[in-house]
Amino acid sequence: MTLRIHFTADDLARTRVARGPRPLLELDVALRALRESTQRVRFDAWRRESFARLTPRTRLAFEVVPVTGWSMDFLLPAEPGSARELWEKVRATPAGRIRAEVDQWAGRVRRVPAWTGRLADEPGFVQDLVDVFEETYEQLVAPHWPRIEQLADADRAMRMRHLTEGGVERLLQGLNPRRVRWNPPVLELTMASGHEGDLRLEGRGLLLIPTVFGSAYPLFDDAGPQPWISFPVGHDRTPWFPLPATATASALTTAPRSLAALLGRTRATVLCAIAEHPGLTTSQLAVRAGISPASASEHATVLRSAGLVGTARDRNAVLHTPTAAGIGLLNASTADAAGPESAFLRA
Predict the structure, then answer these.
(1) For position 41, what pLDDT does the model report?
(2) Model pLDDT for residues 138-191, shown as the tens digit of each residue
(3) What pLDDT, on the 0 to 100 scale, is given for residue 28?
(4) What are the CA-CA distances from residue 137 to residues 23, 50, 53, 140 (Å)?
């Protein structure tokens, strides 16, 4: 069962990678992954923790999102933005659209819950259902969102490397080799639902959306101005573990004195270089830090063991990115190093 996506030259030119995961799409795939038994090393700890956290009323969400197949598009749009912004958009969905999407969804799934008939005529029930999904998001996805973003940043560095070295075709070849195959000019997708057919992009290009929880099969949607498919962050090479909330590191031209005192001048410089230029290879890191490749590798290994940087392997290269803990440490040391003018502005 294969979905075939046909490209033209214009489609290749308009194909792009989304800046990061989409919160409500991530909830969609998380609800599916939670009930699977695959990827045990990657997800079993999260599954145990999530089942312990879920409240009884979140069962409604599982009735709308099957393990494979279609979910209700209006409830879980694959749009950019914060979760809060997206939930507000979902709450404002016109009744006519809800009615049309419920009818379409009912024609695609094997079992339709009796309560879905209330969605078209009871606005209050729609709001209650959105509350359930928002609560489920807070229990399944929100606690891990900083880690999800960090993993996606590391993955994006690898994808951009593919794009710059081999163009869009190299990018497509590396999306998900087991389930997504580039057979020019057609991208062939193996779908968990068994869906098959042909999709012609007709100059619209394709949006590639990263997902952490959707690690096996791709999802796709051809509605809207640009069709999209999902691809797994890091394939199966990226370990799963939660991290605390992250913050954005300021650009650092030199390592702050407090950080150098803590880590040593060279190691602090290595951490700053990785934060300023996520996705550096070891050779590039050595050039940025002004040290030998062997020394760069040694310092990056120590920083990785301390949880301050993460790595992703791309063929023979290792790409280095900062973790939330590393960024937090840099932010703290930068704040401590700020002069009296900065302290006045913060007051």
Answers:
(1) 64
(2) 999 999 888 888 788 878 888 888 888 889 999 999 898 889 999 999 999 998
(3) 94
(4) 9, 11, 11, 5
**What integer pLDDT is reported at residue 136 of this predicted model?**
95
Residue 334, pLDDT score: 56
**pLDDT in the model for residue 344:** 26
Q: Give the 3-state secondary structure of 215-264.
A: CCCCCEECCCCCCEEEEECCCCCCCCCCCCCCCCCCCCCCCCHHHHHHHC
- Which token pair is 221? 């949607």
Cβ–Cβ under 8 Å, residues 247 and 328? yes
Q: Which two tokens stand for residue 31?
A: 């609800």
End-to-end CA distance of the chain: 61
Q: Are 15 and 199 in contact (CB under 8 A)?
A: no
Which pLDDT score, from 0 to 100, does residue 15 have?
95
pTM, two decimal places: 0.69
Averaged pLDDT score across all residues of the chain: 83
Q: Which residues of the chain have pLDDT under 70?
A: 1, 41, 235-255, 333-347
With beta carbons less than 8 A apart as the criterion, state whether 130 and 123 touch.
no
Residues 40 and 46: their CA atoms lie apart, in Å, by: 10
